[in-house]
Design a protein that fits this description.
Blueprint lengths: L4 H16 L5 H22 L6 H10 L8 H22 L8 H12 L30 H15 L5 H15 L6 H15 L12 H12 L4 H22 L8 E3 H4 L7 H9 L6 E3 L2 E5 H10 L1
Bound molecules: adenosine-5'-triphosphate and magnesium ion (MG).
């Protein structure tokens, strides 16, 4: 397994908590879905150089507003990404997501690229590419069809054998490693891993723009066959989404209060710095707010008990 047992347990616990809250009121669910949609569109596009801010993304998507001074392409990318997300949600709701196929991957790509470059939408690349900022050189265009077939075979063989977060991690990397399209690989890769995570009940998982450097670093490690760092990175993003869902959906009287790590260190025998390390490693339930980690008294107690 790529992620350690502790992180897996934490994810499973949180997912169980979330499932206990189901069925979720449809108004709340819709609000959460909207919020995650906008954030995913913003972050996933911004990682690739789209200049719309989170607010502007909201205006474009929810209000249909055109932002003065921002390129048409950035607007189209936002709208396209939204359509791709609708397709993804539909797949997950109708339970077809277990059957990965080249058709599914090409369809996601078609939606992401559609009106931007019709000639490449849904088509594997005919040219060789490179990825700026990395040493990895994707396979030649001639090899892409074969590599994609291998990827599908790998998925079908390993889907039920691996822990889902490990599977989503390796799939994501294998896909962006091949870089089958001329453009849009990063975005399609992030949608693809969500197809499987969401089919397992996880909320939409978002890789944040601010984490771009780390994301590239852990992808490079995966190029060398080391999946641990990438899997931990992805599981932290999974945990973040779960925490937001739980925070919004838990009735306030049952809610645990967020406290700083300095406050938390008073409830246990760990130092503030050690708690910070645990939070960073995903071993302690915690969220990061403006560079500061927050946890709860109960989370610290749960961790102490387990140790
Ligand atoms: N070392 C690496 N190994 C494999 N994939 C990587 C590596 N570093 C980055 N990537 C992936 O490549 C993506 C960026 O590549 P590129 O800029 O060519 O993307 P793209 O095809 O234009 O797609 P998009 O515009 O959606 O990113 C990143 O989002 C990431 O998913
Ligand atoms: Mg691009």
């Amino acid at each position: 397994m790529y992620i350690n047992e502790k992180i897996k347990k934490l994810l499973e616990e949180r997912l169980k908590q979330l499932n206990k809250l189901r069925p979720i009121s449809s108004t709340l669910l819709l609000k959460l879905k909207e919020r995650f949609e906008i954030e995913m569109i913003y972050h996933s596009n911004a990682i690739e150089g789209n200049t719309l801010t989170l607010k502007e993304t909201y205006w474009v998507i929810q209000q249909g507003i055109t932002v003065k001074g921002k390129p048409l392409k950035d607007h189209l990318e936002a709208k396209n990404h939204q359509e791709a997300l609708t397709y993804l949600y539909d797949l997950v709701e109708h339970g077809n997501s277990n059957t990965i196929s080249e058709h599914l991957i090409r369809s996601l790509h078609s939606l992401v690229i559609q009106d931007i470059d019709k000639n490449i939408a849904g088509q594997y690349r005919k040219v060789d590419v490179f990825i700026t900022g990395t040493d990895h050189v994707p396979p030649s265009a001639l090899e892409v069809p074969h590599k994609m077939l291998e990827l599908i075979t790998w998925c079908r063989k390993n889907y039920s054998k691996m822990y889902i977060v490990d599977f989503a991690t390796e799939l994501h990397h294998k896909f962006v490693h091949i870089h089958p399209f001329q453009d849009g690989n990063g975005r399609v890769g992030r949608l693809l891993m969500n197809v499987f995570l969401m089919a397992h009940g996880f909320p939409l998982v978002i890789i944040q723009k601010n984490d771009r450097q780390k994301y590239y670093r852990v992808l490079s490690a995966a190029d060398q066959g080391n999946y641990k760092a990438l899997a931990t990175f992805i599981s932290q993003a999974v945990l973040k989404s779960l925490n937001i869902y739980l925070d919004v959906l838990t009735p306030s009287k049952e809610k645990e209060n967020w406290i700083t790590l300095a406050q938390a260190s008073k409830y246990c025998s760990y130092s503030q710095a050690y708690l910070g390390k645990l939070a960073k490693d995903g071993k302690l339930e915690a969220i990061k707010l403006k560079k500061n980690w927050l946890t709860t008294k109960e989370a610290v107690e749960r961790y102490s008990k387990k140790e």
